[in-house]
Amino acid sequence: MDISKLLFEVLEQVWYLIPLVILVNIFKSCWFKGIFGEFIVNRLLLKLPKSDYTLIKDVTLQTDDGTTQIDHVVVSKFGIFVVETKNMKGWIFGSARQKQWTQKIYRHSSKFQNPLHQNYKHVKTLESLLGCSGEQLHSVIVFIGDSTFKTEMPPNVTYARGCIRYIKQFDEVVFSDDEYLRLIESLNQIKLKRGITTNLKHRQHVRKIVADKESIKQCPRCGSAMLMRETKRGENKGKQFWGCSTFPKCRAVEQSNSCGIG
């Protein structure tokens, strides 16, 4: 039997499934979910009155240690709103101070960086580059997708349409007309030009951050750094163990391979 001929005949029957499988994998990818989530939020933010609000999307800025990328920046006479989008599903657990939040889908749980902490760097970078005060910038986190908050979230962490309500509650003018126009012009000037080179540099920077974090032992309970500590008394006096750096707030400990204690 000619194997190659048989394979060719099989491919003739199912060739149309190949692009379908590719499309399904693309739709399931984190890249597509991120792009789709940003698209949805862009459409929502564009509903803000154009006379008072200007949306600038996909802003990549140069920092001292690389680059930082902001999903959406809304410049208005009432302040600057720095918007971070999360396209996620499942139950979301977290608080403002936790370094890591939890996503739970059925019985599977996974950790992800507190988006408030992630957006804090964006806010501080804009504050420095635009010469604004901290009170004039506002961090906004928008969750897109079939997700449910299972813990009480801060008011600036919202579902899709909630971001419009949150932004509109700031109705005190903090920038004059001239300042408003200057900020838009300044932001368009300082943001890096979109393209392959900019995206590549940002991805390299993100990979470095991830690698640096992976090299630091993290607390399994709260996500903070773990420190090597030494038992001060008892039968294990002098032996070492891993303890959470936030002790006594978090009392998680782990066995050290070198000492064999819990």
Automatic annotation (TrEMBL):
Residues 33-149 form the NERD domain. It holds the Pfam family NERD. InterPro entries: NERD, Topo_IA_Znf. Gene3D superfamilies: Bacterial Topoisomerase I, domain 1. This is NERD domain-containing protein.
